[in-house]
Design a protein that fits this description.
Blueprint (H helix, E strand, L loop, with lengths): L1 E5 L6 H12 L2 E4 H7 L3 E4 L2 E4 L1 H12 L4 E4 L10 E6 L2 H10 L4 H12 L2 H9 L3 E5 L5 H13 L4 E2 L9 H4 L9
Parallel strand pairs: 1-5, 1-6, 2-5, 6-7, 7-8
Antiparallel strand pairs: 3-4
Helix pairs in contact: 1-7, 4-5
The chain binds adenosine-5'-triphosphate and magnesium ion.
Adenosine-5'-triphosphate binds next to helix 1 and helix 7.
Amino acid sequence: MIIAVSGTPGVGKTTVSKLLSERLGYEYVSVKDFALMKGIGEPVGDEIEIDVDALAREVKAEFSARNVVIDGHLSHLVPADVVVVLRLHPRAVAERLKSRGYSRKKLAENVEAELVDVILVEALEKNKRVLEVDTTDKTPDEVVDEILTLLEEGVKRRVGVVDWTEAYDDVLEYLMLGGD
Ligand SMILES: Nc1ncnc2c1ncn2[C@@H]1O[C@H](COP(=O)(O)OP(=O)(O)OP(=O)(O)O)[C@@H](O)[C@H]1O
Ligand SMILES: [Mg+2]
């Protein structure tokens, strides 16, 4: 079984994926490392540009008969049995990314993406089984417990657990909304 863990940068994908893979006894795979290993990731500046179609093909070839947790903000675009989309209050996303020293533009892009559910919408376009989990004010262990419960209960789709429409005021200072 392939479990993809996706979400906006900084929401806790890597932390949760590693813990989830340990708890399930699955292999842990980072999309970025896998893409680099397969030669389908191009370093562009300080980022890696990944050919998503090639990534989907390689993931299918390599992991369809294995039990893996795939971590990365592109993981919802690969053929997975379950996609977990982690959510985090945009204010917390902003604070985490700010402490990483992200530029104002990158900060705005990612806070805006979390506000308007970009990854969730993409995941729903591509996958049947999507589990949305709000990580706000939860420990990584609590998040993993929630995912394991949803998996055990065989829940097929669980979305609509957050609504950030009231969060705009909390993050106005970070937004660029299409301007500079
Ligand atoms: N549930 C949580 N509660 C508090 N802090 C957390 C939680 N999950 C992750 N963190 C912290 O937030 C930071 C970002 O976590 P992590 O690297 O797992 O995010 P990510 O989604 O993988 O980021 P990226 O998209 O850059 O790979 C880390 O410092 C991590 O320790
Ligand atoms: Mg990560």
